[in-house]
Design brief:
- The chain is mainly alpha-helical.
- It has 3 domains: 50 residues, no CATH class; 33 residues; 38 residues, no CATH class.
- It has 4 helices and 2 strands.
- A two-stranded antiparallel sheet has the order 1-2.
- It is extended.
């Protein structure tokens, strides 16, 4: 026979429903962990984007920068070379995407084959990675050779 448990209210679902401080220090940990990455993104991506936007509405004069508004954009859109450049970019992007997808699918099909052909294709596929490591090792060995290596005087 089970003993009767006293009726208690369920724990609050939201931190604002809890009594006491708004947030516990532990609740802030994810934000502190993301802060360095957010700062790097701000410095590397957001600041240059905003600075580029500011520069795009100005022109350089001998006396300094002069605000011209959207005049730079109207000049750009009235230039035929701009549309030709956009066309070349679209052709390149579509061509690159199609070629990459087809090549990746073909390689996946080749590697999915059972038997000795699969081992041959896997070897052929991974040779560039292995070869790059071998070349790096040989070059480093040549750099540190005691007699005539480039870093022999330092070591």
């Amino acid at each position: 026979m089970q003993s009767a448990q006293p009726a208690t209210s369920p724990p609050p679902l939201h931190t604002s429903d809890r009594p006491g401080p708004a947030r516990r220090p532990r609740d802030w940990l994810p934000f502190w962990l993301i802060l360095p990455t957010a700062l790097v993104l701000l410095v590397i991506q957001v600041y240059p984007a905003l600075y580029t936007l500011i520069l795009s509405v100005q022109t350089r004069r001998p006396a300094g920068w002069e605000f011209v508004g959207l005049r730079n954009f109207t000049r750009l859109l009235s230039n035929g070379a701009f549309y030709e450049s956009v066309g070349h970019t679209v052709i390149f992007l579509v061509g690159y995407t199609v070629i990459t997808l087809v090549a990746g699918f073909a390689i996946a099909l080749l590697l999915n084959v059972k038997g000795s052909r699969a081992r041959f294709y896997m070897t052929l596929f991974f040779i560039p990675w292995v070869l790059a490591d071998i070349i790096v090792g040989v070059v480093f060995r040549l750099l540190v050779l005691p007699d005539y290596g480039l870093l022999a005087g330092i070591l």
